[in-house]
Design a protein that fits this description.
It contains 16 helices and 16 strands. Strands 3, 4, 5, 6, 9, 10, 11, 12, 15 and 16 form a ten-stranded mixed sheet that branches. It has a two-stranded antiparallel ribbon with strand order 1-2. It folds into two domains: 318 residues, Alpha/Beta hydrolase fold, catalytic domain (Rossmann fold), CATH 3.40.50.1820; 126 residues, no CATH class. Helix content is 39%, strand content 17%.
């Protein structure tokens, strides 16, 4: 009986020079002979591909690329060098455990770096990259957006005629897992980076190294932070001063958090009332006699009302008589655009989330933004006590992400396959033992050179302006530093600089703050 024979083209054995036909017996023999070799080669190919992919997707421990450009600020040409790079975070043994991405702008027609101010810039979150102030506020380029901050196409950037680069060099820093910054040593405990005090500790060491590398110890130095970045820089100025002996001329808090300054129930809730009044004024939800007033005039009335009437009423709680409760609810409704009924139903304590949902509910079924209550949106259902999403934040994400990816690759020439994390994975975040606001006050008392400026948007419901004022009162509880503390308010939201008018004003306020806080040569750091 003849064996069945199958003809197969041989193309897998290098020992054979052609694709001649062979029997199944020879095929099996050759297959067994070459199987181990084939598997080994295949495995090497796979591993090689994986290694290459991993190398491409990892941030370099140390790198930098320099480009030059110029911008016209206040009608004058300002040439500058931009350095986009990475610098490591080290552990106690001196081994790199993370690498932080930064962008450093230096004016190039200034030779005296000793007198040239340096601004060190952070955003917040926690978990937010430095992109927000980098591409929309103080840097030499800004987003392509309209005059009120809404995204427009084509995406990209344009020159910033209001940048502070004319008076100060600036470095924007992305903390671990934000932007292009990443953990390198994967077994490093997450608590090394992700917590109020650990964040401050490793960033202080990083800043110390950066200032040394770029030879800026002699320069007047400033820290600026936005949102949670204010918690960060309030702690950093104290950490750098007390642990690294690096002293600063100024701290700028943009839309500040509570920074650990104590306020509870009635105090914080009463402090929201000026923000409620400002928002209702913007949406024309107030009675005609209030609506006709200028915003500054209105707030001058509502701020004392919040402190002198709303706070005591809230503090009394159930001790309020029916007539007192009805009277204060009537006035609260008058200044907020909410109904007296809704205020009474909430026992006078109106959460911000309810306000964002309620203010325009009956009028047009719209919600308002948390971070900027000028923005409006709408939910799946008009009912409920809180909105589905923040229409302000979703609009901003729309504008920022494409612009930075275009800018980093095409202008800064920083090439990577990493995703630029607008918001990175940094949770759980350890919020225990926060004293940053008090630490800032202590640093100011220790350093007579140190000045503070707070910038807030009147329509910011995430970090409202009146609670920011309250913080300054308790950073300086005895009032002896009033001449070194400035508060600036703007008719916009959390990112007040997105509105063209406030972009110009807020940058000029920083410019003036820097000029004010510069020290004359030979002036001693002492109290008179």
């Amino acid at each position: 009986m003849k064996k069945n024979r199958i003809s197969i083209p041989v193309i897998w054995d290098r020992q054979l020079e052609d694709t001649s036909l062979i029997s199944i017996d020879l095929f099996l023999s050759q297959f067994q002979k070459n199987m181990k070799k084939f598997c080994l080669i295949f495995l090497c190919i796979i591993l090689s591909g994986m290694t290459q992919a991993q190398e491409v997707r990892k941030i370099p421990v140390e790198s930098k690329v320099e480009t030059t450009n110029e911008v016209t600020i206040k009608g004058k040409r300002v040439p500058y060098r931009a350095t986009a790079g990475t610098q490591p975070v080290w552990d106690e043994k001196g081994e790199p455990i993370a690498s932080l991405f930064y962008t450093y702008y230096e004016r190039t027609d200034i030779s005296d770096k000793a007198s040239r101010p340096l601004v060190i810039s952070f955003n917040g979150g926690p978990g937010s990259a430095s992109i927000w102030m980098h591409l929309a506020y103080t840097g030499p380029v800004i987003l392509n957006i309209d005059s009120e901050g809404y995204p427009v196409q084509p995406y990209g950037t344009k020159a910033n005629p209001h940048s502070i680069l004319d008076v100060a060099d600036i470095v924007y820093i992305d903390p671990v897992n934000t932007g292009y910054s990443r953990i390198i040593k994967e077994d490093t405990p997450r608590g090394t980076f992700f917590g109020i005090n650990s964040d401050i500790k490793y960033l202080a060491d990083w800043v110390n190294t950066f200032v040394t590398r770029v030879n800026r110890w002699a320069s007047p130095k400033y820290l600026i932070g936005e949102s949670y970045g204010t918690t960060r820089v309030a702690g950093l100025v104290a950490q750098l001063q007390n642990s690294h002996w690096m002293y600063f001329n100024g701290v700028i808090l943009v839309s500040p958090t509570d920074m650990g300054i104590e306020r509870g129930g009635p105090i914080k809730m009463a402090n929201y009332w000026p923000y409620y009044a400002a928002t209702a004024w913007y949406h024309k939800a107030l009675p005609a006699e209030l609506q006709s007033k200028d915003l500054d005039e209105l707030l001058a009335i509502v701020e004392p009302f919040a402190v002198n009437e709303v706070l005591p009423a809230m503090s009394k709680g159930g001790m309020l008589s029916d007539s007192e409760r009805d009277a204060i609810a009537t006035k609260m409704a008058y200044y907020s655009g909410l109904s007296k009924t809704s205020i009474l139903q909430q026992n006078l304590m109106i959460p911000t989330s309810f306000f964002w949902k309620e203010l325009l509910r009956e009028r047009d079924g719209m919600t308002i933004g948390r971070l900027d209550s000028r923005y409006k949106g709408f939910d799946r259902m008009e009912g409920g006590v809180t909105y589905d999403f923040d229409p302000a934040l979703t609009s901003w994400n729309h504008a920022f992400a494409p612009a930075f990816n275009i800018y980093a690759k095409n202008v800064l020439k920083f090439n990577t396959d990493l995703t630029y994390n607008l918001f990175g994975p940094v949770h759980p975040w350890d919020r225990s033992n926060e004293t940053t606001g008090y630490d800032l006050g202590t640093a100011m008392r220790q350093n007579p050179y140190l000045h503070l400026m707070v910038q807030s948007g009147y329509f910011d419901g995430g970090t409202d302006y009146f609670n920011a004022k309250y913080s300054t009162w308790h950073i300086d509880p005895n009032g002896k530093m009033k001449d070194r503390i400035d508060f600036k308010g703007y008719r916009s939201g959390h990112m007040m600089y997105l509105r063209a008018e406030d972009l110009a004003t807020s940058n000029e306020d920083i410019r003036q703050f820097i000029q004010k806080s510069l020290v004359k040569p030979g002036q001693p750091a002492m109290y008179k």
